[in-house]
Amino acid sequence: MTTDRPESFQYDAELEPGTKRHVREPVGESYLGDPVEIPVTIVDGAFDGPTVFLTAAIHGDELNGVKVVQEVADTVDPDRLHGTLVCVHVCNVPAYHAQQRYIPVYDQDLNREFPGRANGNTAQRMAHHLYHRFLADCDLGIDFHTSTRNRTTMYHARADLTNPAVERLARAFGSNVVLYGDGEGGSLRAAATADGIPTITVEMGRAHRFQPALIRRAMTGVESVLAEYGLHPDEPVHWPGWYTTTTADSEKRWLRARTGGLVEMEWGPSPLVYEDDPICTITNHFKTSEHVVTAPFTGLLVGVLENPVAAPGHPLCHLVRLEPDTRDEIEREIERGEFDGYRIRSGEWAGDD
């Protein structure tokens, strides 16, 4: 059986059904005129089916997704696959080389420039080539991220849940928590979804490291998506046990420091906090002033500052309000010892095993 492949996947020679190809695609040039190349794996299934993209390291220091994409590209068998996988291992190669979030020198955020411009600045040109060469003809996509440096984020997805096609993808991925949002302007998720390519963002853990537990969960999520959309028609769709989403009017809030000083986190052992629970305390160096930051409502901590110092206005944590039924299910999981949040044991963050 042949597979329908869009023109953008025709390289030097036509991909044959049931094959896997590794590509280094030039998306720009260095100061020396050498090509800047992104590594891409195309897994072309032996059977007809949809085309799915997986992208990682749009921010160059966000590494968990790099490992997810590597493992998926390596382990998916093209002889069993019904469709095509487009695995972009590292989107932002200049930032990846520098191990920083943005494109070096100009501090351009690649994830604010999609779908890009052919004759624009460096980030716009890279985004344009990446998007139109590999992504624009896909049927759906998953974009992997972590928190930025000095913070960590709970494993969750972000999606435009007002779009039924995106909501289906988010549910199929199987993370417990999905935050509503149509994406920042110029983000890959927003641009692709606007073009009719349902796309979600997966946020998972910290920058500058691999966190095996989170990587395994994300691989399970990808497998679940492949099952839901028929790329692996004989495999089951994953159900995470409990599932909560926010809506456009849901209360989710970054709590920010009112004073500068040293930050001691007091929440835990799970990221479920109740109204008026202390989350952290900020003290000056003389310990003559103290400010206790408390939870304004009962909710789940989905992002938390790790750097123990703060200035006024610095984000301390990202809190999402929970409905009572979801709160009750999380409490049951905590009692069973099964909740996979972060900072469960002895102050350590889950995902670093």
Separation of termini? 43 Å
Number of strands: 17
Mean of all residue-level pLDDT scores: 89
From the alpha carbons, calculate the radius of gyration and give it in angstroms: 21 Å
Strand-residue proportion: 25-35%
Q: Shape, please?
A: globular
In quaternary terms, these chains amount to single chain
How large is the count of helical segments?
Answer: 7
Label the structural class: alpha/beta
Largest sheet: 13 strands, mixed
Flag low-confidence runs.
Answer: 1-8, 344-349
Helical coverage, percent range: 10-25%
Order of helices and strands: EEEHEHHEEHEHEHEEEEEEEEEH
Verbal overview:
By secondary structure, the protein is an alpha/beta fold. It contains 7 helices and 17 strands. The strands form 2 sheets. Strands 1, 2, 3, 4, 5, 6, 7, 8, 9, 10, 12, 15 and 17 form a 13-stranded mixed beta sheet that branches. Helix 1 crosses helix 6. It is globular and about 70 Å long. The N terminus is likely disordered.
Secondary structure layout plus pairing:
Layout: E1 19-29, E2 35-44, E3 47-56, H1 64-75, E4 82-88, H2 93-98, H3 122-135, E5 140-145, E6 151-159, H4 164-173, E7 177-180, H5 188-194, E8 199-205, H6 212-228, E9 244-245, E10 252-256, E11 261-265, E12 272-273, E13 278-283, E14 290-294, E15 299-305, E16 309-310, E17 315-321, H7 324-336
Helix pairs in contact: 1-6
Short recap of the structure:
The chain has 353 residues and is α/β, with parallel strands linked by helices.
